[in-house]
Amino acid sequence: MSIFGNNILGKNILGNKDAAPESPAAGPGVHKTDAEWRQELTPEEYHVLRQSGTERPFTGEYWDTHTAGVYQCRACGAELFTSNEKFDSHCGWPSFFAPLAEGTVRYIHDRTLGMERVEVRCATCDSHLGHVFDGEGYPTPTDQRYCINSVSLKLVPREEPEVSGQEAQA
Length: 170
Prior knowledge:
Blueprint: H1 11-15, H2 34-40, H3 43-51, E1 69-73, E2 79-82, E3 86-87, E4 95-96, E5 105-110, E6 117-122, E7 128-134, E8 144-148, E9 153-157, H4 165-169
Antiparallel strand pairs: 1-2, 1-9, 3-4, 4-8, 5-6, 6-7, 7-8
């Protein structure tokens, strides 16, 4: 899968330092004032989701979770990732090899902290989720690692199908 050309970081991005491509998007579907976001989110959620902060590694709620389910944006509830794409990267944050579906996240070229990275944002409310890295050698179908802050997510566990008494005894 590619977001900017040949790969996740794309030769065009790294080769042209003046360009700051973003994935095409019609714009976020949730529009709130800064005051509304501050009222709805905890200080930590606000810092990460609205100010592009990050939580400390190995401290978030989901970095080592293996519960089956869907991960939603904590700010707006949009479904972003599933446990099927989650993998153990041992980096201290939840890691996914792909989003739930095309168009659920958007990408921004991030040059902060003196690094070349690709920021991942919720396509619905434009909240900061984390970053995506390409070509790190993880044995995943995409060779990508969506490194996402736990505080940006809310896990909705998958309900186990009910089993009748006869099926349970079989």
